[in-house]
Amino acid sequence: MPRLPNSLLRKARNINSLLPALLGPCRDLTSAQNELRWLREHVHKEAKRRSKKGDTLAKADLLKTLVECRAKGFPLQYLLGSEFFGDLEIECRPGVLIPRPETAASVTHLAKLIGSAQNLPTELRVLDLCTGTGCIPLLFQNEFRSLRDNIALRLLGVDISRKAIALAIRNRRRLHQSNKDVYKTATAFMLADVLSNPFADSAIDSPLPLKSALNHRRLPAFWDILISNPPYISPDAFRTTTARSVRGFEPRLALVPPQEAGSSHVEKGDTFYPAIFQAAKDTEVKVVLLEVADLDQALRVARMAQMRNFDGVEIWCDQPDQVNDSIPEASHGIPIVGQGNGRSVVCWQGIGAEWLEKKAASIESRPMKEVLEQTLAPRFELERCADDTVRLPRFLFRARTQLVDEWGLPVKWSTQGDKKKS
Amino acid sequence: MRATPWICRNCLSRIARPANRLRSSRFQSTASTSESVPPALLSRARSIASEHKQLTEKLADGFDTRAAKKLGEYSAVVTALKDWEKAKESVTELTSLIHDPTTDPELLALASDDLDATRTQLANASSNLTTSLVPIHPFAHLPCLLEIRPGAGGSEAAIFAGDLLRMYQAFCNRNDFRSNLLKYENVNGTQEAGIPLSEAVLEIDSENAYGVFRSEAGVHRVQRVPATETKGRTHTSAASVHVLPSLQESSLGENDIDDPESDYYIDPKEVKLEVMRARGAGGQHVNTTESAVRLTHIPTNTSVSMQDSRSQPKNKEKAWVLLRSRLAQLRRDKREEEMVAMRRSVVGVARMGRGDKVRTYNWGQQRVTDHRSGTTVHDLDDVMQGGQTLSKVMESVRTWLMEKDVEALLAEDAPAREGKK
């Protein structure tokens, strides 16, 4: 990191004597000024709160301590006790990951898409794995409710950390208090381990595996939407690319996945994704939104999704609601939506395509001949002719206009196709 | 010596040509005018058709959004022109059949039967063609303000101005325009009626009022023996009429930001949103407190940045409010400039005399002549009562204005097309 120039430090000191200390973590003057202002507002609020209790507070001292803490790299959000996540103010505490604005952008975008979708079930079930502060379910509910109120919502946040679950429950209570019109909504938070195998032996007081926990809590086994912002930083990247305040003060548990022996150092960040896809399969979700570190990881995860027979995969950038202007619009056949760095992977199957207003890509994008051959070949003997046409069984004759005109499939009609199997 | 008394030549010729007058009045009737299309319009339609053809060829090679949009705009004109040409052709064919002496009687009967139907088709086609071509005045849909002031001619002009005001009020009543007298001041400076008028502002509060009354702006000349005249001489005086579109401020409040008419409306597509992105990886790697948002309105290059709050959505909201009010201010200034320019162009200060008249009301001959369209009607009383005859005159002026507009358009287009070549 480049040294801060003396001129900048001097300039900062001329404005306020506390500013030079804040320049360390902030790196530029305007954001240092903003942080100082927010800290000062926080101190005022705190002083007012104390004086209500009949207590007194030395404002200047508190501000000075806070600035000193911040100068060491302690995250501002922990100092102020909250962070804005979309429209919500989420409480933050050391030991639980601070919500990031990029996550808010993609969750908001997803909630908007789903909120304006047709054909939703009467109860929409949203599962959030590795929920942390509980920000994702709470924001999803907030955004979804602003669009639709005729559909019941069931939200479940899952985390392995007891601290996180306690904080998430606190956040839920606080937000539901301020927001009375929440009805037909059930938000729950549950302690469970996404990674552990339900059939393996486990220690007595360790969290249950996800599937067992769902059973144990008598929660539904099938869900509609799965969102997750799992730990995705590989140990190497944690050492080299993370910011100092993240590395030093945020929980490693929420950032770096546990290591499996034998995985390459690049893939050490990907530990969670196969487990999440397995959970998606078990709970039969229709839409999956996963946050990733960058475009490379996005592509790795997207390929994983393709292997697992999702109907479609997309990569969303930091701002998925903006028009893509810089990066190529597709990479390796996977469309990239939005502006900024590759941030999340979205995949869908079945009716999820309709919710996201995607065409049922499974049939139309693949060559028709291939589809027909794959679906029909096990049951009927298809005759291949020399001129690259396919002889189809005659029961498909009524669909000939579609076959021939719309898909341009060269077809000849078998005279005895029906007899072969019947 | 002649036995007959002397008769002026004009009167003689009028006696001699009653048929002429009949025919000329038929030219003004609606049935025959709607069949013909003004030549200026027709040539514009043809040029559009040729451009349409070029665009189609261009689009066949490769897609271009702008060209496709233009093509869509032109296609209505092109189809209307095709219909019109087809109808025109069949009419000429039928007429030639009828006039041909060698046509056998059976065919003749058929042709003359068909002619009427084809005529109506042609009339429809030509009205379609005109409506598809004529540029609509940007303010035509708005309500308007009609200001009447006496010009040259002293108190007679003031009396005539009062007559005009009553004429327009009667016209509004007959044609279901809501009118409202905003200001009325007589020469004594009071609001008492019956005394010569010094200034009146009539607000016509119906939609499309500006489109209808736009033709009335200008100097109206009167030729009559004034009530104030003692020796029976005919005077010529004038009154000026200003017509201005009324842009209602109340409808441009901050409340209707979704209404495209409003000053506060901004098309979200025209705004570029920039948020401070984390340098490098972002996501879990960094823990940014930057929440600054910058909005840039691309057409006007106005930009607003906001970093007061820790919440990015809140900053965005504030930035939008600020951008809206800045753009609204810009637009208001621009509109005020336009209004000033328009006020000057409607009737220049120097052009208020008797000579620069747009219409003459002649009591002696019971005649009203509009000097722009060249229409003359003879039912002065009906005109002054705001009746059917007045609407006829106004209609003719609107047609004339439309032709002028099209000519101006053609003139504008010509250099552009030269430039392209």
TrEMBL record, chain A:
One of its GO terms (molecular function) is methyltransferase activity. It comes from the Eukaryota. InterPro entries: DNA_methylase_N6_adenine_CS, N5-glutamine_MTase, SAM-dependent_MTases_sf. SUPFAM superfamilies: S-adenosyl-L-methionine-dependent methyltransferases (SSF53335). Keywords: Methyltransferase, Transferase. GO terms for biological process: methylation. One of its GO terms (cellular component) is mitochondrion. PANTHER family: HEMK METHYLTRANSFERASE, MTRF1L RELEASE FACTOR GLUTAMINE METHYLTRANSFERASE. This is S-adenosyl-L-methionine-dependent methyltransferase.
UniProtKB/TrEMBL annotation, chain B:
One of its GO terms (biological process) is mitochondrial translation. PROSITE patterns: RF_PROK_I. It holds the Pfam family PCRF. GO terms for cellular component: mitochondrion. GO terms for molecular function: translation release factor activity. Keywords: Methylation, Protein biosynthesis. InterPro entries: PCRF, Pep_chain_release_fac_I, Pep_chain_release_fac_I_sf, Prokaryotic/Mito_RF. Gene3D superfamilies: 3.30.160.20, 3.30.70.1660, 6.10.140.1950. SUPFAM superfamilies: Release factor. Belongs to the prokaryotic/mitochondrial release factor family. This is Release factor.
